[in-house]
Amino acid sequence: MVFISNQAKNKLISLLKQEGLSQDIYFIRLGVKNGGCSGLSYQLTFDKKQKKEDQLFQNQEIKILIDKNSLPYLIGTTLEYSDGLNGKGFYFKNPNAKHTCGCGKSFSS
């Protein structure tokens, strides 16, 4: 399972509306790719199509797609959002990450 905090949910819905995208049609795609200063980096995009190899989750009224290669790295992860003075944006609380870089955009497992 993958989770989305209330603040992240509200921001995702706001972004969908700003882009003129329907929450009923679009998914949130979470993924992991090679790169970043810690070896793996997170991906967060909107997607209209579910692929055969995708796992579908739903949390906080948000439909989430994760490809089969990224899934082992993301199980149990919570997508968070902060708009505080110390930083603004999405970040991941990932129990599978053994090391996270200072920016929070990459990790190693």
Give the topology, please.
Layout lengths: L2 E2 L1 H13 L8 E8 L5 E8 L6 E6 L2 E6 L3 H4 L3 E7 L2 E7 L5 E2 L5 E3 L1
Parallel strand pairs: 1-6, 2-5
Antiparallel strand pairs: 2-3, 3-9, 4-5, 6-7, 8-9
Describe the protein in words.
- With 109 residues, the chain is an alpha+beta fold.
- It contains 2 helices and 9 strands.
- It has helices at residues 6-18, 71-74; strands spanning 3-4, 27-34, 40-47, 54-59, 62-67, 78-84, 87-93, 99-100, 106-108.
- A 6-stranded mixed beta sheet has the order 4-5-2-3-9-8. A 3-stranded mixed beta sheet has the order 1-6-7.
- The longest helix is centred in the first third of the chain and has 13 residues, at 6-18.
- The two termini are 18 Å apart.
- The mean pLDDT is 88.
Strand content: 35-45%
Structural class: alpha+beta
Radius of gyration: 14 Å
Shape: globular
- Helicity level, as a percent range? 10-25%
N- to C-terminal distance: 18 Å
Detail the poorly predicted runs: none
User: Strand order across the biggest sheet?
Assistant: 4-5-2-3-9-8
Number of strands: 9
* Mean pLDDT metric: 88
User: What is the count of DSSP helices, taking H or I runs of 4+ residues?
Assistant: 2
H/E element order: EHEEEEHEEEE
> What is the makeup of the main sheet?
6 strands, mixed
